Amino acid sequence: MSVADLSIRNGRKKAMFSMWCFMKKTTRHETSHAFRMIAAAVTIFVMAPSVRAEPIMQVVQLVENLTIDTVRNRHSLENAFSFRLKPDEGTSVFSFWIADDLVIDGLPVESISYRQPRPGAGATAGPLLILLLGKGVCVDREALLARFPAMQPAAPSSPHDPNPMLSYSRQTEDATLTLGFPLLQQDCLSKIIYSLANS
C-alpha cells in the first residue's frame, strides 16, 4: 500500500471516528431532530419554485390552448404538449391515459388524464381533460375569476367530493371549462378540468 493510499485510509478512519463521537454525544432525539431539520431545509430549497403561486397568465394560456382538436385522441395530445401518455389501469372504465411529472407552461402538473363520461351520464357530457397540479402549487382564484368573469358555481362532481366547482363557458360551440378547488383553500386552485361538450 502506497503512502498516499495509507493517508486516504487514515483520513477516512478519522472522519468515521469523529462522526461516531458526535453521535455518541448526541441523544437519539437530538439526532432525529437534526435530521428532520436538514430534510426540511432541503425540501424548502428544492420545492420553493413550485410552492409559490404561479402567474395566472400561464394557466390562462394553457386553458385557451386546449381545443377539441388537441384532446381528441392520445396522439394529438402527445403532439400538442410533447409528452408521452401511458394507460391508466386503475380506472379503466372511464379513464384512458395518465402521465406523471409534467411541466406545462411552467406549471408543475402532477398528472393529466383524459376521461370518457361514465355510462348513464347526461347526453351533453363530453370527455374530460383533467390536470392535477403538483402538491403545493396554487393559482390565485380571484385573478382567475377576474380573467373569466362568466364563471358561475356548479354542483360538486360527486356526492363524495365536497369541493365546489366553478364552470366557465368559453362561448364556443365545443368547450366548457370547469375549475375545481378545495373547500379549505378557496383562494387556491389545485385542479383544472377541461370538459368538451360536443366531441
TrEMBL record:
UniProt name for this protein: Uncharacterized protein
Taxonomy, superkingdom: Bacteria
